TrEMBL record:
SUPFAM superfamilies: Chalcone isomerase (SSF54626)
Name of protein: Chalcone isomerase family protein
Phylogenetic lineage: Bacteria, Pseudomonadati, Pseudomonadota, Betaproteobacteria, Burkholderiales
InterPro entries tied to this protein: Chalcone_isomerase, Chalcone_isomerase_3-sand, Chalcone_isomerase_sf
GO molecular function: isomerase activity
Keyword Nucleus part of the UniProt annotation: no
Domain of life assignment: Bacteria
Leader sequence segment: 1-25
Keywords: Isomerase, Signal
Residue ranges occupied by any Chalcone isomerase domain in the UniProt entry: 25-192
Any Pfam family: Chalcone_3
């Protein structure tokens, strides 16, 4: 076995371990996805997953977990109960690169009136990205909506940043991938189609 193959195998094992426990429902580029996860004591189902690509480069794997599966983004926005978006990095990024992509995604999908309502929350999220400095291939970011608490993020198993209480903010985050102008239209289809 040459060193390239061995390194690839090792990276896949590390990603699988980092991604979580439970029955694996699917796999994409060596990233294993759990069929269900628990958020705030509730079991969520894998709704869909896909690869964010920029030109030909793989950037990250995104997955969406919901109380009940849905192919309707409008329905997802109105759902009760917790929700989770998980990002697994497929290459190294600086916090500036990740933060800029996040802000661009928000700007393209949230109008100025709505954005004005969530400026303080956006600022808190920006501070969180600044704490990360560098994101490495294999890093795992969970963005959870917890009813009665707010948006809570976890990076490689550790809670990071402040809790952001407004559901409007979490729904704005979801629009980055599933709004009218998603960062990647094929990823939007994958997250909503159960693929």
């Amino acid at each position: 076995m040459n060193s390239f193959t061995f390194k690839g195998l090792l990276a896949g094992i590390v990603l699988a371990c980092a991604f979580g426990q439970g029955a694996s429902a699917a796999e994409i580029s060596g990233v294993k996805l759990d069929d269900t996860v628990k958020v705030a004591g509730k079991e969520l189902k894998l709704n869909g997953y896909g690869m964010r690509q920029k030109f030909v480069a793989k950037v990250y794997v995104a997955s969406l977990y919901l109380p009940e599966k849905s192919k309707s983004f409008a329905e997802i926005l109105k759902m009760d109960g917790p929700r989770r978006v998980t990002i697994v990095l497929m290459r190294d990024l600086t916090s500036d690169e990740f933060g800029d992509a996040f802000m661009n995604g928000l700007s393209r999908n949230v109008d100025n009136v709505e954005k004005a309502k969530i400026i303080p929350q956006i600022s808190k999220f920006g501070e969180m990205f600044a704490l990360l400095q560098v994101l490495k291939k294999g890093d795992v970011l969970h963005m959870d909506w917890i009813p009665g608490t707010g948006t809570q993020c976890e990076f490689n198993g550790k809670k990071i940043g402040e809790v952001v209480p407004d559901l409007l903010f979490y729904n704005a985050i979801l629009r980055i991938w599933m709004g009218d102008h998603p960062v990647d239209s094929s990823l939007k289809t994958a997250l909503l189609s159960g693929k």
